[in-house]
């Protein structure tokens, strides 16, 4: 689809300044599935001049959805990064994220490196379940809301904004509102533009241009003038609750006239309130019809933070941090210290493994020797590139606040998602930097991978294909750490586990068609776990060659209750398992570490032993262990001349397994994933749906609510309900949905907790029960012990 360039927003093509960090914006697009994230992104790229044509999701030719699976299904599966300019001088790094719950890890890791978010809301559906979830995941990050699909039948701007206030507990700042054409006897009003509250303009989109009409040129008694006056009053009043400078200007300079406050003053105030997370700017449009996207881009650069205004990353050490417009973030007063985080890994058919990084401090140069503080690996990085979806552009360096990609053969071997990258200019700072040891062990923004809830068996078609199968699975997991592979030691069966049925279906498709793995993939089953009911007996190893360990295994709950400050807790990825090392206060007093092997290497060896032992599983069904703690007593020791951790790995793994073997089968329990389920059904269908949930699905009903009854929402807050009632909103014929009190047309929201095993393929069952009128959404809640009456059935089915 091609459109003429709009002169009012025409762009220069030069690169945004890299010396002024204030001109950078790192933003993400988040929303419920099908709200229009990718469609909006495509329009942003076109109107910025980045692309020459607009991609279409339905036609499968979008820029950011470039995977074959994304284009064939019309959904976003993996987050995609792209860089473009706006208003000649602003550089925007944009990440388009998935909306489907199965790919929530893509959202989690993207949010770790973003400074601001654009939340897309469907004007027909309002604030949906996944929107609430991603909003919660982005807690603390300034946001802009864009009410999309205003051209659809049933669209309700004011209803959606009211839901936003109450469900998300946020004040709103209406930057613009929808404008509709005047209806005639034969036509309905159609969405054609927006009323710009800040600049006092009406913007109407035509196939070739945007018409701008100044409100001052319209008669004062027109509906638009009266609407603008009320909107301006509401906007200034809300801003004045947080911004004293605006109050002073309003009273002293504007003489109490809401219409006399200039746009620049209001923009500054909106930015101040947005960065403080006091309120959320709201705009509207219809991305598919190219309406409202340019004002949204203006709002991104006006109201969302630059890297130096955004929240600082979470550091594991208490080092001094400074910010400046020129250098960005400076850690430990060391201008030559570069700190970056790897948040995504992909495999490019030409360049090989590529690692996405966000640079937080300093400058990362092509060809630098860098240090991975997470793993202790030191290696040389190859060329640096900036990604434009799946097209790479080489750059010489990445500065503070920028997002780019590491390439090179050594990168694939030494960097994984979540790792912290450190680089020094040794010629300049040498060893004179304060706290150099802390710099080299610096870690930021830990990324926790949610546990998988479904699994599928994978087998090579022939024995000769096993190695190729393992390499393909390894490549898949390198890109998507929310997938997990395990091997049953007794049967030799390989299991691939993921976040949902669609997640595993996509993984299977990529294995067979993209990675060309010659494998057989079994049916999807639930990922069960086992846990301990009691602690193991203490295992001791005291040998003449200098190894001394005392180890036991405990249930997490018991270990947590007895937790104290003389313990180091190390999280094992997935399954809520931990390694606890009791501190030796006498050894801590020694200034010289008595061993040749670094302490971190010893800990990493023990962590690896824990992972292997826990993956072997429990005694009931050999399911992997969950919510368990390996405790290492404080008086451990190793030979002082030891230079390899191999023996430590062997000894600790053996001791953990021996400790687990001391626990009887009856003292193991099976755990199953429990899901938070939200169903939307008609009142007339509610009875049989509830009966099926509580009967066949073994669900625990939490609440039943009217869909648009904002007073009964789960996130209900009396303060924000009052704010929603007092907030001025333009007329909206869909607002009456919130006041429906009877009738079979009411939509009911059922919230429940249900075992995931009983919700497999629930879509077809719900469609049958509600004649296609019902819908549901699930997200992981936690693991719970299986009741005794269901254990036999689960084991037989598994």
TrEMBL record:
Name by which UniProt lists this protein: Ribosome-releasing factor 2, mitochondrial
UniProt organism field: Lachancea quebecensis
Alphabetized UniProt keyword annotations: GTP-binding, Mitochondrion, Nucleotide-binding, Protein biosynthesis
Classification via SUPFAM superfamilies: EF-G C-terminal domain-like, P-loop containing nucleoside triphosphate hydrolases, Translation proteins
Similarity comment: Belongs to the TRAFAC class translation factor GTPase superfamily. Classic translation factor GTPase family. EF-G/EF-2 subfamily.
Keyword Mitochondrion: yes
Gene: MEF2
Keyword Magnesium attributed: no
Domain Tr-type G: from-to ranges: 22-308
